[in-house]
Amino acid sequence: MLDTLVQNMGLLCSRHKRGNQANTEENAHAAEIERRIEQETKAEKHIQKLLLLGAGESGKSTIFKQIKLLFQTGFDERELQSYTSVIHANVYQTIKILHDGAKELALSEAGSSKYGLSADNKEIGEKLSEIGGRLDYPRLTEELVQDIQQIWKDPAIQETYARGNELQVPDCADYFMENLQRLSETNYIPTKEDVLHARVRTTGVVEIQFSPVGENKKSGEVYRLFDVGGQRNERRKWIHLFEGVTAVIFCAAISEYDQTLFEDENKNRMMETKELFEWVLKQKCFEKTSFMLFLNKFDIFEKKVSKVPLNVCEWFKDYQPVATGKQEVEHAYEFVKKKFEELYYQNVTCDHQDRVFKIYRTTALDQKLVKKTFKLVDETLRRRNLFEAGLL
Amino acid sequence: MGTQWAVPYICFPLLYIAALVVITGAIHHIEFKFDELKDLWRAILVTVFSIGVWAVAYVLNETHEEIRWLQVSTRCVLLVVGSFLVVAFFSVSFSQPLVSVMSLTKKESFNMKTMGEALGIPDSGLLSQNDPTLDVDPNEPLDKLLLNKRFRLSFMQFADSCLAGESVHFYNEVQQLEKIPVNDPVKRIYMVRHIIEKYISTGAPMEVNISHRTRQEILTTLDLAHPDLFKNAVNELLQLMNMNLAKDYWSSMYFLKFKEEAAMRSVDHELEQVNGWNFSPRLSSVHCPDDPFYQDHISRDPPSHDAYSSYSRR
């Protein structure tokens, strides 16, 4: 009898359960969501916010990609493949810029025939320029590569390329032209290197969360890094991100001292970077924010400095070259670094005295260097946190 | 009033018309873009007509002061002609700005949402129920996909959420411009000037990310009604969206929602649970409306709150 009773009770219970099943499930669901939100907000407090700022084409997104490669899962095959069209577009656009640039130079300097293409190449040039103006580019084929190589070797185009600083030739031009054959293979999958070189103008804001993991132990800090567009119109959006920032990573391409802005060709890029850096330093929200200045594109700077004197830029007018070769590069770099240092201290008032300011020499394409630099940044920020907590 | 005053009274308008005719004649050799000369002649004709009506009424009034019905009917005729002229004025497209200013000051409800609506471009408002849905294939080029209004709206919301909306908004308004027939240059120019002020000129409220050259080309153009005025800018921006936003869109909540809606529309079946979270690397912790970048408005939603709330609503 007891048995049946128990059975009945069991039945009752289960029936009751079935009736309420949907309800409880929903409740559990809601609770689970509640819990996750709470967890997230809790975790949020420990996340350090990093901003990548800087003018257009200063290498912010390249640093961003490096972080993805170094401290996250990197790029899977699909992502790599999605860069194929970007890289091909870079090639077509480069040729178009050079071809149209040569034509313009030939017109403006009617005296010299330096920029006149040979008759054969003219036709090819027109064809490629037409492709470069299209919306969707064809895949690079063996045939197109031959055309591109031929026109790339044309002395007029090379002469134009030498004056690339006056046009808006992307920095990746050289690299992709050297690797054309490989890019056109039918089963081509971009390499890590290719992806890092690919030029994409960022618009809006992109974010990534990462934690720098050392060889043997976790650093423990979690960072959220924001990448933004650098052109003038993009800068108005930065202000949305300015609250609660741990550190600003300011990228300045030191190789850009003889180039003009993409969005305003009457303005020297270095002068723009100078003004922009000043503006960022003066922001009220950044009173307690650390500043990491990345003097980026050192690889291009190194090559350029011996060819183009530093004092073509108004800001570096008082530069006097002292030596040649490697020594000169170092000297020039130190000069630029000093200029930025001076600029920083000119714009620091007593409100900002306890903020950290560090300058790093970087080449965003160099993975090892970026890794090293980020470890230093991480260390600096952790030390600063301890200091703030009164432990140091 | 004596009849000796009537002559100078009539002379004034005659002088006015004569002056108009002389000036128009003096500039008749200039080749105007939109046949302004023809408009001027037409305006003179209208002026002559209305002054004629007025003069006749005036003279009749003065000479037959004793006939009552004539007094009333001349005044009536004047009123009717006057109101016809007013109606005609407001129906011509060049009075549009005046109309919009008047309606703005009178009532908020008259406020047009977009320039397209203000100009009465067909189909320029927000979505209507019967817009076609489409099966989106991510491999199709973006410019084709954006032609679909439903997709464009979803894409626009996504772009707004990652603070890159201006490109899509610009594309949208250029599409509206395309809908204005080429033979209505006045309307086109209003739209073009609106687009330039909002998106192109330096420091514009929703300035787009285009090259110096393209911007200069647009700003220094001599023909605002040119059908290909924005072609280069649109190309550049489509390229930008393609390389930047498209990839992230396919993995965003907005695309999931879009797909869901499309599924709901085509078959009215119970939608399957989409267990998707926002995988897109675009903004999660910063949510702010992007219409045109309210700088003082930074809402601090908890992260991925959107994803959560839409999840729980199901």
TrEMBL record, chain A:
Gene Ontology molecular functions: G protein-coupled receptor binding; G-protein beta/gamma-subunit complex binding; GTP binding; GTPase activity; metal ion binding
Localization: Cell membrane
GO (cellular component) term, any one: heterotrimeric G-protein complex
Name by which UniProt lists this protein: Guanine nucleotide-binding protein alpha subunit
Gene3D superfamilies in UniProt: GI Alpha 1, domain 2-like, P-loop containing nucleotide triphosphate hydrolases
Binding site for Mg(2+): 61, 202
Cofactor list: Mg(2+)
InterPro entries: Gprotein_alpha_su, GproteinA_insert, P-loop_NTPase, Plant_Gprotein_alpha
Domain notes from UniProt: The helical domain is required for self-activation.
SUPFAM superfamilies, per database record: P-loop containing nucleoside triphosphate hydrolases (SSF52540), Transducin (alpha subunit), insertion domain (SSF47895)
Lineage top rank: taxon: Eukaryota
Residues holding GTP: 57-62, 196-202, 227-231, 296-299, 364
Keywords: Cell membrane, GTP-binding, Hydrolase, Lipoprotein, Magnesium, Membrane, Metal-binding, Myristate, Nucleotide-binding, Palmitate, Transducer
Parts of the chain that traverse the membrane: none
Secretion signal span: none
Lineage: Eukaryota, Viridiplantae, Streptophyta, Embryophyta, Tracheophyta
Function: Guanine nucleotide-binding proteins (G proteins) are involved as modulators or transducers in various transmembrane signaling systems.
Family: Belongs to the G-alpha family.
Subunit record text: G proteins are composed of 3 units; alpha, beta and gamma. The alpha chain contains the guanine nucleotide binding site.
Primary localisation category: membrane
GO biological process: adenylate cyclase-modulating G protein-coupled receptor signaling pathway; gibberellin mediated signaling pathway
UniProtKB/TrEMBL annotation, chain B:
Any Pfam family matching the protein: RGS
RGS domain span: 141-259
SMART domains xrefs: RGS (SM00315)
Keyword entries, A-Z: Membrane, Receptor, Transmembrane, Transmembrane helix
Residues spanning the membrane: 6-28, 40-60, 72-94
Region described as Disordered: spans on this chain: 294-314
Name of this protein: G-protein coupled receptor
Species this chain originates from: Artemisia annua
